[in-house]
User: Which sequence fits this backbone?
């Protein structure tokens, strides 16, 4: 059947359904037009396309929708924010509390006690440099040096005398009973040469005048002692005085308790 015949059939049906009566309100002067697709020159309407997936298609679409919803739910669940506990904030301290804590901390740290260094030589068990608290006395220095040896002269020392940093305590030999007392011990302050009147004379640092004041040693013997020290170096033992010209065994015996070697 051609397109012309189809149009004729449709036109006849439309005429029978939409017949217009003379009593209608339509203006007779207004021409009645027919749809453009009924014209002979108009192309015939094409077939209408309708999407009909069927039962299997609907089931497949439903499965895809369920899978997509499940994937979206998993993604949303994994990206959800995780709550974390917040550490409690420390209580704010007032200025007075901070000052009190600082003062308590400062008072709990003891200050380092000042020390002094004293030299203890002579008839002691452990002579040398000893460290003592500031304000110590000669008795403390002797105790730190191991105490005095037997026969040491303690009468020449004021055991209650306070010591200063750099002092030296000389502990000499006590004189035999009945002999002339000799002040064999003394304390020497810092800056002294180590040879004072009444104390042992250091053979390695004594001057010619100091040696001349020793009993039995005159200017000539004092000069000989200094010459021997210059030629041979420092004395290492008091007995080496016997090698000096003018000092025999008798004179050496008199000088043995009056000189020291340091």
Assistant:
């Amino acid at each position: 059947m051609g397109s012309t015949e189809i149009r004729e059939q449709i036109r006849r049906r439309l005429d029978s359904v939409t017949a217009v009566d003379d009593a209608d309100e339509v203006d007779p002067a207004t021409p009645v037009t027919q749809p453009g697709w009924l014209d002979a020159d108009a192309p015939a309407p094409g077939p209408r396309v309708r999407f009909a997936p069927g039962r299997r298609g609907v089931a497949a679409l439903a499965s895809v929708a369920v899978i997509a919803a499940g994937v979206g739910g998993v993604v949303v669940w994994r990206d959800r924010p995780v709550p974390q506990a917040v550490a409690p904030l420390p209580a704010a301290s007032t200025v007075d509390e901070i000052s009190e804590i600082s003062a308590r901390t400062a008072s709990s740290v003891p200050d380092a006690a000042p020390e002094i260094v004293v030299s203890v030589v002579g008839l002691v068990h452990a002579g040398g440099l000893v460290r003592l608290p500031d304000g110590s006395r000669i008795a403390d220095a002797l105790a730190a040096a191991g105490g005095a040896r037997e026969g040491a002269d303690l009468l020449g020392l004021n055991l209650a005398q306070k010591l200063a940093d750099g002092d030296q305590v000389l502990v000499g030999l006590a004189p035999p009973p009945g002999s002339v007392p000799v002040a064999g011990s003394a304390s020497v302050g810092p800056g002294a040469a180590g040879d004072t009147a009444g104390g042992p004379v250091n053979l390695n640092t004594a001057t010619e005048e100091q040696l001349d004041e020793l009993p039995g040693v005159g200017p000539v013997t004092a000069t000989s002692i200094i010459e021997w020290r210059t030629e041979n170096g420092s004395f290492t033992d008091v007995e080496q005085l016997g090698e000096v010209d003018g000092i025999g065994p008798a004179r050496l015996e008199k000088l043995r308790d009056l000189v020291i070697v340091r």
Summary: The longest strand covers residues 115-122. Strands lie at 115-122, 128-133, 168-171, 186-188, 201-202, 259-260.
